[in-house]
# Entry
Amino acid sequence: MANTSETLLLDHTLLTTIVDDLAEKGWSQHDRFIPQALTHDLAAECQQRAADGRLAPAAVGRGATAQVREGVRGDSIQWLEQGEGAATDAYLALMDQLRQALNQALYLGLDDFESHFALYPPGAFYQRHVDRFRDDDRRTVSAVLYLNDGWLAEQGGALRIYPGETALDVAPMGGRLVIFMSGEMPHEVLPATRERLSLTGWFRRRA
Ligand code: OGA
Ligand code: MN
# Structure
């Protein structure tokens, strides 16, 4: 991929905006969060994993009670590990910079980041939910990075968030990051007419 040998650094102004948005309204959105070449490499990686059959239908809930329920969410996922490739490592390094900035500014005590690729086939959706399990409140900040080249609003697939009384739709444009407080922001994924790719992750506090 392009740019792998250099360490990418998140811009200070960008980090300040994210921190201020989270503190003031509980969510934040940024286009071109990462270089376009990296977005392309991550999209290619997600497609390759899908082609290799490495993505599996996502479950609802965790541990012994986890269940695949297509009427609730229809995406297929694969969790990321460190050291799987240049593109995914570059993404994890960027998210670690974000984790440290959030800790410094908001004292969130985030000590871990878990993330997965997600692929929604045409028509798949994820019903309204909050990103926190009943029996595990470690997930504190959610971050979704979209990997879709040339997405058009009429193709659907919006992330619909409910920051207050009115819903707000965010189109899953490639390179766009949406970040929000996991325990406080109800949201859903609307069905799309084309395949929808993303990297979704959670900054977690210590248990
Ligand atoms: C999730 C989720 C949002 C999106 O995976 O929990 O809400 O836009 N994803 O993909
Ligand atoms: Mn969610």
